[in-house]
Design brief:
The complex is a heterodimer of chains A (457) and B (277).
Chain A: H1 2-17, E1 45-50, H2 59-74, E2 78-83, H3 96-105, E3 112-116, H4 120-125, H5 132-136, H6 138-146, E4 161-162, E5 165-166, E6 169-174, E7 176-181, H7 182-187, H8 199-213, E8 216-220, H9 230-238, H10 256-270, H11 279-288, E9 291-297, H12 301-308, E10 314-317, E11 332-338, H13 343-356, H14 359-368, H15 386-390, H16 395-401, H17 416-433, H18 437-449
Helix pairs in contact in A: 2-14, 10-17, 11-12, 17-18
Chain B: H1 3-40, H2 60-68, H3 71-102, H4 108-120, H5 123-137, H6 143-147, H7 154-165, H8 169-177, H9 182-211, H10 214-219, H11 227-230, H12 242-262, H13 264-276
The chains are: A alpha/beta (457), B mainly alpha (277).
């Protein structure tokens, strides 16, 4: 009996595992990059555009479908298949890299892909996005940034650059903003027209709200692993530090400025003015009107406006600064990259990028989805976004911040996500679990340094 | 006070305690489902409200869900998958169980144990080979790709063979004497007698196919063809759209509820049988 059972198990296992070998295939080779000729008028090309926007129903999918239809009408020889990244995550934006990797492995990558700035190093050096400067010429790339009438904001146009070459055209982004509840400000005896401008003022205002209304004071959505590191980098830059050295050879997130940032935030939690919540709990609590202030991506503004309705009034201010220093916001968001292996497709991919970043496309995207137009001049154009900007009082502090915007720096090497997550875990442990900021950051930095290319030496 | 009275009181106390525990447990089970429907019926600006009663009631979330997604199409596709997958598994299980129970043949025990053995191999071990095979057959991104690999269920074979083992051999012999072929014996003698077991198993299989998330998510990587995947499209980088998300989730639960209400006795039977046998 035992032997029969053993034989049965072995046979089943054999059946179950025998097909596994089929899954391994070699990585596709990189196409050589040379200048691609213009398409002939009758040359038919079909390309694939992969963007996480197609994973979200409503304005996102509808607006992009509308833009693709308009593009195809203008370019009857190019047909575009729009798709969302493949994967099982609830949030399709987290599937972008793995989806692209598996398609590259299979040898048929999508032609135009929307990828986050946090993945820039990996996208350029490991996934081998094509340098647009080589593909269509630096002049053409720069001419696209200049636009017909409204150029890209200066701080935005180099966000997709790597070592002086443009690889990605920045497409959408948001900055960290201090959103606040005007009703709670009034109830706490604060002036809702003068929101806090420094972190010391945030702490005082949060304390007043907590004491006077019993509601929570302030939440900073930059201090957990789930929040990723984009606005933690902004806090560290605003305190005069960096998370990684400028030559990208050394991690510096355990240096005194970062420790100071973490200690300031930890104090807010300790004294009870910042609730110990997860990102989602805090966002929903603010939308419900139970939280005074939240430092959050301007992309979430729609959720707040929906929650506020006619029950409370939303206020927005620029990211607060540390006493005596200029606040330096960083951007979250994504750029468009080209991965086509065929020259005609590469050209068609560029045409699509030009169209999607045109004045016309930004006008559509801003009005229908609410994303910040990277061609900021559009908000003064009566035929463009002037009306939209007038109706959107939250836009001004956001646009103003762009003057001091610095890029969200991606971590280097193939283990860039582990480095980022290790750093943010240390921040979370200190701020919300009471670990010693200096020790926590130092040990995370030591561990993460070994993951740098070359072992951080 | 007599001993009888004391004993009576303590047993009554125990019964009361039992009811309290059961009541609390059932509340804990029902509350999330209540909250789901409550959230789906709140007005859009009240979605984040913590009040227990959703008031004023609003169907705006349902309207929004239908406007943004093809909810009916998704429910239909999920239904097709659940029904075809359950029927296919029933058929395969019935034929296999009939063979194992009605005949003696070489290596019977080994083959049966192999069926049981597949039950021990976790899904995670078979999903990649299945996926690669589907990819080569060109069945990725199709409903057929979701259904076909589920068609043979070890659970079904196991359960039906146990039932058939208890089936009187005399009836099979009598049918044979009547000159019936084994195929016609199956459909005219065995199946009618097995109807309760088949119904119970069918319901069980249909419900689990309806609720399945992971396998459809692997096969239908980019589409929202089934409702469990369609729910994802209300979640994203710019926050979750709780109203329509809960409305769609509420609609996804309804067919299972209805099935349960109509066939309550069979379903309880199904779970009891599968648990005990």
């Amino acid at each position: 009996m035992k032997r029969t059972l053993l034989a049965a198990c072995a046979a089943t296992l054999l059946l179950a595992t025998s097909a596994c070998g089929l899954g391994t295939e070699s990585t596709g080779s990189q196409a050589s990059v040379s200048r691609v000729p213009e398409l002939k008028p009758d040359q038919k090309v079909s390309i694939v555009f992969e963007s996480y926007n197609f994973g979200q129903a409503g304005a996102w999918t509808d607006t992009f479908n509308e833009l693709i239809a308009a593009f195809e009408k203008e370019h009857p020889n190019i047909s575009v298949t729009a798709q969302k990244p493949q994967g099982n995550s609830a949030n399709p934006a987290t599937d972008t890299i793995s989806s692209l990797q598996s398609q590259l492995t299979a040898g048929s990558p999508p032609d135009v892909v929307q990828l986050g700035f946090s993945d820039l190093d990996f996208t350029v050096n490991q996934l081998k996005a094509l340098p647009l400067d080589d593909l269509v010429g630096k002049d053409t790339v720069q001419a696209n940034f200049d636009g017909e009438e409204y150029p890209y904001a200066d701080s935005a146009r180099t966000l997709g650059d790597w070592k002086g070459k443009t690889y990605g055209v920045p497409f959408v982004f948001s900055t960290p903003m201090l959103y606040y509840n005007k009703q709670l400000f009034t109830q706490a005896g604060l002036d809702p027209e003068h929101p806090p401008a420094t972190w010391a003022e945030v702490r005082d205002a949060a304390k007043a709200i907590k004491d006077m209304t019993g509601k929570d004071g302030a939440y900073v959505d930059c201090l957990t692993k789930a929040a990723k590191d984009w606005c933690f980098q902004a806090l560290v830059r605003s305190a005069g530090g960096r998370v990684i050295s400028e030559d990208r050879s050394k991690l510096t997130f355990a240096d005194p400025p970062s420790v100071e940032v973490v200690r300031t935030m930890q104090d807010m939690v300790r004294t009870g003015v910042m609730p110990n919540r997860t990102q989602m709990q805090a966002v929903e609590s603010f939308a419900r009107g139970d939280l005074g202030m939240i430092l959050e991506s301007s992309a979430i503004q729609g959720t707040f406006l929906k929650g506020a309705g006619d029950k409370w009034e939303l206020g927005a201010a620029a990211m607060p600064s540390f006493e005596g220093r200029q606040a330096i916001p960083t951007n979250s968001g994504a750029a468009l990259f080209v991965f086509s292996q065929d020259q005609a497709k590469q050209r068609a991919a560029w045409e699509l990028i030009e169209f999607l970043t045109s004045e016309r496309a930004y006008t559509t995207i801003a009005t229908k989805i609410g994303y910040l137009p990277l061609r900021t001049g559009l908000v003064n154009d009566p035929d463009g976004l002037e009306k939209w900007a007038d109706e959107n009082p939250y836009l001004e502090p956001n646009l103003k911040q762009l003057e001091h915007l610095e890029p969200w720096v991606s971590m280097p090497g193939a283990s860039y996500l582990q480095i980022r997550d290790g750093m943010m875990q240390a921040v979370e442990n200190a701020v919300y679990q009471g670990a010693n900021p200096a020790d926590s950051l130092r040990s995370a930095q030591e561990e993460a340094s070994a993951l740098l290319p070359g072992g951080g030496k | 006070m007599t001993t009888d009275e004391v004993a009576g009181e303590s047993s009554r106390g125990r019964r009361l305690g039992g009811h309290v525990v059961l009541g609390v447990l059932s509340l804990a089970c029902v509350f999330p489902i209540y909250w789901l429907y409550a959230t789906s019926l709140r007005a859009p600006q009240d979605v984040y409200s913590l009040s227990v009663l959703p008031w004023p009631l609003s169907t705006a979330s349902y309207t929004e869900a239908f406007a943004k997604n093809d909810v009916l199409g998704m429910l239909f596709n999920t239904g097709v998958i659940a029904v075809l997958s359950a029927l296919g598994q029933l058929l395969v299980a019935l034929l296999a169980a009939y063979a194992f129970a009605a005949w003696r043949f070489p290596l019977q025990r080994l083959l049966y144990l192999m069926f049981v053995g597949t039950w021990l191999v976790p899904f995670q071990a078979t999903m990649l080979p299945n996926y690669v095979l589907l990819s080569r057959l060109g069945l990725l991104e199709t409903l057929a790709g979701v259904i076909i690999p589920t068609l043979c269920s070890a659970l079904g074979v196991l359960l039906l063979r146990e039932h058939l083992n208890g089936f009187p051999k005399e009836l099979l012999d009598a049918a044979r004497m009547d000159g019936r072929s084994s195929w016609s014996t199956l459909w005219t003698v065995v199946v009618p007698a097995l109807r309760p077991a088949l119904a119970a198993l069918g319901i069980l299989l249909a419900i689990s196919a309806w609720n399945e998330y992971f396998w459809p998510a692997m096969v239908l990587q980019r589409s929202n063809a089934v409702v469990q995947l369609g729910l994802r499209s209300f979640m994203g980088t710019e926050g979750n759209d709780w109203g329509p998300l809960m409305a769609t989730a509420g609609l996804a639960c309804l067919p299972v509820f209805v099935l349960y209400l109509v066939l309550q006795r069979h379903i309880v039977n199904a779970f009891v049988r599968s648990g005990l046998k």
